[in-house]
Amino acid sequence: MTAGSYCYIGPQGIVHGTTITVLNAGRKYLGTEDLSGKVFVTSGLGGMSGAQPKAAVIAGCIGVVAEVSEEALQKRHKQGWLQEVEKDLDKLISRIRFARKTSRLFDVVVSIGYHGNVVSLWERLVEELHNTGELLVDLGSDQTSCHCPYDGGYYPVQLGYEEAKEMLYADPDRFKSLVQESLVRQVAAVNKLAEKGMFFWDYGNAFLLEAKRAGADVGVKDDDTGLKFRYPSYVQDIMGNIFSLGFGPFRWVCTSGLPEDLEKTDNIAIQVFEKILEEDVPPVVGAQYRDNLLWIREAGKHGLVVGSQARILYSDRNGRIQLALAFNAAIKNGSIKAPIVISRDHHDVSGTDSTYREATSNIEDGSAFTA
C-alpha cells in the first residue's frame, strides 16, 4: 500500500502519518497543542513502526519505544531515527523523569529506544505510579506486528529474544500460549495507567483484537455485540476526524531529481499554507493546517528522502488546489526546473479499509461486523 504508488516517498508517509496522529491524540485526549514534556510510550522499531521515535520528536514530545530486537533498535539508532538507546529499566525511568523536566524548561525533545520487552516497561510504569504516585506516561499505543502475533510479530515477556525465537520454531503451541499470557499482562498494565489519566489507542495493528482473543480485559461493559473495545482506534477516533474535514495525504515528486527543487516546493507549501491561515478558516481546519506547517518546516531536516526527490503532505481540497497552482507558476517562471508529479497516498480519505486491522476498533461503519 504505502510503497504501491509510482510516486515513491520512502519512509516519509508513515513518519508524517504518525506525526499527525500523535499531534491530534494530544489535541483530543490531552486537550493541548503543545506536547512539551508529554511522554509517548509505544513499541516496535521494525518496518513502519520504526517511524515512531522520529515522529514523536517532530511532534514535540518525548518518545519512548521498546524493541526486543537489538538489530532493529541499533539500525534505527544508526540511521538517526532514534536519538538514545537504553537497556536498563532503572536508568530508563530516570531518563524519562529528566526528559520531562528539561523538555518543559528548555523545549528539548528526545527519542529513547528501550532494548527490552514493552510489557516490562508498562509494568514498571505501573510500579512507579504505585510507589511514587507519579504518572510518567501521557500517551500510549503499540505497533508490534499483532496481525501475526504467533509467527514472530509479538514476543512474549516471559522469554528473552533469542530463547523466544527458538521456542517459536521448536514449540509453536507453547509460544502461542506465552504470547497470550503476555498480551493479558500488557493490557492489565495499560488499564491501570489509563485509569489514572494515560490515553491509549489502537494503532491499526490488531493489538486490541488479539488481546481480546487472548482473554485480556479490553471489552466494554454492557456491550451486547461483543465488538466494542475500551480503547479507541486511530482510524475511527483520531484520523477519522481529520478525514471528515477532507484532509488526507498526497505526494509530489520533482521530476528534475534536484534536491533544490524539492526545497523550493517545501517553501512554496509553507507560503501557501500560511496564506490560507490568514483567511477565515474554522478552528478545526486551521489546526490541521498548523500541524502540516510544522511537518513541512521539519521534513527537510530529517533525511527522509530515499531515491525520488519527493514529499508528502496532508491538506484539504482548497490547500491542494492552491499548492498546485503555485507549483505551476514556479515551473512556468523557471524557479523550479522541471514538472512536478502529484499523486495520492493509500492513507488518503477512504483508503483505510482493512477490516481486521483498522476496522475492528469501534469503527462505526459496520465493517466490524464483517470482520
UniProtKB/TrEMBL annotation:
- Domain Urocanase Rossmann-like intervals: 10-238
Top-rank taxon, per record: Eukaryota
Query: Which Gene3D superfamilies does the protein's record reference?
Result: Urocanase like domains (3.40.50.10730), Urocanase superfamily (3.40.1770.10)
Entry's Gene Ontology BP terms: L-histidine catabolic process
GO molecular function (one): urocanate hydratase activity
Name by which UniProt lists this protein: Urocanate hydratase
Which InterPro entries does the UniProt entry name for this protein? Urocanase-like (IPR023637), Urocanase_C (IPR035401), Urocanase_central_sf (IPR038364), Urocanase_Rossmann-like (IPR035085), Urocanase_sf (IPR036190)
Q: Where is the signal peptide?
A: none
Residues in domain Urocanase C-terminal?
242-371
Q: Name any one Pfam family assigned in the record.
A: Urocanase
